[in-house]
Design a protein that fits this description.
By secondary structure, the chain is an alpha+beta fold. Among the domains are: 86 residues, 3-Layer(aba) Sandwich (GIY-YIG endonuclease); 111 residues, Nucleotidyltransferase, domain 5 (2-Layer Sandwich); 145 residues, 2-Layer Sandwich (Nucleotidyltransferase, domain 5); 49 residues, no CATH class. The protein contains 20 helices and 18 strands. The strands form four sheets. Strands 12, 13, 14, 15, 16, 17 and 18 form a seven-stranded mixed β-sheet that branches. Strand 7 and strand 8 form a beta hairpin. Helix 4 crosses helix 11, helix 7 runs antiparallel to helix 8 and helix 8 runs antiparallel to helix 9.
Length: 627
């Protein structure tokens, strides 16, 4: 029996007009809904053919994920590119930026950390979350901060390199005194002007070999350094390098995997549990398993081939390294992705679907890891949901609420003797912390240390941004509005609750309100003559404590940031000839007032607009000792 064909969707007038002028060229197209929100991003070799096909009859029911979106499309936009490879890269960028709900994308898509080796004459090694085409080499992405921190600690033990942002010219002294890393033998000290570029670069070569998974080559290089240190009778250095070599050799032996295929390859394994999908990526370098990442993917009704293609486009668009071979259990649905990967790698990338042997076994192992990860993650989410439900139920009983509070907000104020007073707002949605909803305020209308007035100002500004029940907004205005909470928590006792209640009354809002006093963890309801005391083990109290502690942490972090900015600005303020533009340029170059004070006059004069006289005034104002 032939599959049922989908009828042609109706074409809105705005879309019909746009379809008539679509160019017959490669590019990216964007579908937006009536509120102007982008709901789908796609790429095409021929924009005309691809986009018009969505409003034509044909295809099996459910075969086109985007078919579900067509009814919501109100406007169409596009960008023409020079090639399909450029279109694929732009598509991946736009999907990460706009997070369209109908695109296949990583569930946890965000700015992952990388390790960057800069393109300076004396390269520095640093963590970053930004990929910039500046000649630097990037390693990653690392899926957790812990993994990138572990990698940084490993290379710091093994190699000597700089992490500072000081401008250093070959064989020229940049600092009067080296930093602590030089004394700890963690850096060769190129800032002293006595390290040839070639010698420093050999150290960086070792860093890049290690980060790139070339453990055997890194071991060979370290062994040569160990022998050289022994010949110089630098036995302490030789012993340190020997221990590093032994550690690397042990790790390398443990990571080896049986292989009859390429020594450098990524292996992708996919697993499903209902509509939940995870993809595991094994990184094999020098026949050793050097990394394993697992990502949850937004699936919809897509098949494995389409999911793997979408994952490859998103993952490798930002990968620091692309291997010459990728193994999966299924061919990708879009062969153009291989051209894109080859262009990014500047070398051929092949896709393999092994049917037997070691590589087929490793593909199955990757699939099993993806499945185990999904099972574990779903169990954790179920447990989190049960704890959240128990906490919300306990709160609704203890506080006599009409229903469980789906959205809880907590407000805290931080100040030191009335200076740099700030307020933070943290949010729990369905009993789970929601960091993306957090907000912070710099209190401007309060003089001195007045906690009640600071709370009142923060809440007044917060509720000015809300949408009351029944109010309709659309487009950009809706995206800026904040939902009203089902429970408002104030960090404080009866006085702070009274200040918050006055704000709610003035705004005509009837929102349940409770204060959490720190000393005895008392709960104060508005107009209450006595506090509510809950057991320390009460799940509702624990949820409020977590939210309060988050608000405290968030406020203190903002407070420290403002103090740090003010301290740096105050040290640079009042210097004749140093305006905001030059001040920003100096801080961008040297990182801080301390970095500026440690720099020589010659380095300061390299900043546009800073001459010898101004550099001397800056160093004098900062109290830099040039004796």
């Amino acid at each position: 029996m032939a599959p049922e064909r989908l009828p042609a969707p109706s074409v809105p007038d705005a879309i019909a007009a746009a379809l008539k002028v679509l160019p017959d060229a490669p590019g990216v197209y964007l579908f937006s809904d009536s509120a102007g929100k982008i709901i789908y991003v796609g790429k095409a070799t021929h924009l005309t053919q691809r986009v018009r096909s969505y409003w034509q009859a044909g295809g099996e029911p459910g075969a086109h994920r985007i078919r579900d979106a067509i009814a919501e499309v109100a406007t169409l936009d596009w960008t023409v590119t020079d090639s399909t490879k450029e279109a694929l890269l732009l598509e991946a960028t736009l999907v990460r930026r706009h997070l369209p709900k109908y695109n296949i994308r990583l569930r946890d898509d965000r700015s992952y950390p990388y390790i960057r080796v800069t393109a300076d004459p004396y390269p520095r090694v640093e963590r970053t979350r930004r990929l910039v085409r500046d000649g630097s080499r990037y390693f990653g992405p690392y899926t957790t901060p812990g993994s990138v921190n572990a990698a940084m600690e490993a290379i710091k033990r093994l190699f000597q390199f700089r992490t500072c942002e000081i401008a250093i010219k070959p064989m020229e002294r940049a600092l009067e005194r080296p930093c602590l890393l030089y004394d700890l033998k963690r850096c060769q000290g190129p800032c002293l002007g006595n390290i040839p570029v070639a010698d420093y670069q050999r150290e960086i070569d070792g860093v890049q070999l290690f980060l790139g998974g070339r453990s055997r080559a890194a071991i060979t290089m370290l062994q040569a350094r160990m022998e050289s240190a022994a010949e110089r009778e630098a036995f302490e250095d030789a012993a340190r390098i020997r221990d590093a070599v032994l550690s690397l050799e042990t790790t390398f032996d443990e990571q080896k995997v049986p292989t009859s295929g390429r020594a450098d390859e990524d292996v992708l394994g996919i697993a499903r549990h209902g509509r939940h999908v995870a993809i595991a990526c094994f990184q094999i370098r020098d026949s050793a398993l050097v990394g394993r990442d697992v990502h949850r993917v937004e699936a919809g009704d897509s098949g494995d081939a389409e999911l793997l293609a979408g994952f490859a486009a998103s993952y490798y668009a930002r990968a620091g390294e692309i291997p010459p071979s990728i193994a999966t259990a299924t061919e990708l649905s879009d062969p153009e992705i291989l051209d894109f990967l080859s262009a990014r790698r500047e070398g051929r990338v092949e896709m393999r679907v092994p049917q037997r042997g070691d590589r087929a076994r490793i593909v199955r192992l990757a699939e099993r890891n993806a499945e185990e990860w999904l099972i574990r993650r779903e169990a954790e989410e179920d447990a989190d949901r049960e704890r959240a439900d128990a906490a919300l139920s306990a709160l609704s009983v203890a506080l006599h609420l009409d229903a469980s509070p789906a959205r809880i907000e907590c407000v805290d104020v931080s100040t030191i003797q009335g200076a740099f007073t700030v307020s933070s707002l943290t949010v729990a949605q369905e009993g789970q912390l929601a960091p993306k909803e957090y907000r912070r305020f710099r209190i401007k209308g309060v003089t001195g240390q007045d906690d009640f007035a600071a709370h009142a100002e923060a809440l007044t500004r917060r509720f000015a941004r809300s949408v009351a029940d029944g109010t309709q907004r659309s487009g950009e205005a809706e995206s800026r509005a904040w939902s009203l909470p089902d429970l408002l928590v104030i960090d404080g006792g009866r006085g702070q609750v009274s200040a918050a209640a006055a704000v709610l009354d003035a705004a005509g809002l009837t929102i349940p309100l409770v204060g959490l006093a720190k000393e005895r963890e008392e709960l104060w309801m508005r107009d209450a003559s006595a506090p509510i005391l809950l057991p320390a083990t009460d799940p509702g109290l624990r949820l409020l404590q977590r939210l309060r502690d988050e608000a405290h942490r968030f406020a203190i972090g903002y407070h420290r940031t403002l103090r740090s900015r003010a301290a740096t600005a105050s040290r640079l303020d009042g210097i004749r000839g140093l305006g905001p533009t030059k001040r920003k340029a100096l801080l961008r170059r040297f990182g801080s007032a301390a970095g500026i004070a440690a720099a020589p006059v010659e380095a300061l004069t390299e900043v546009p607009g800073v001459d010898q006289a101004l550099a001397a005034r800056i160093l004098t104002a900062l109290g830099a000792d040039r004796g």
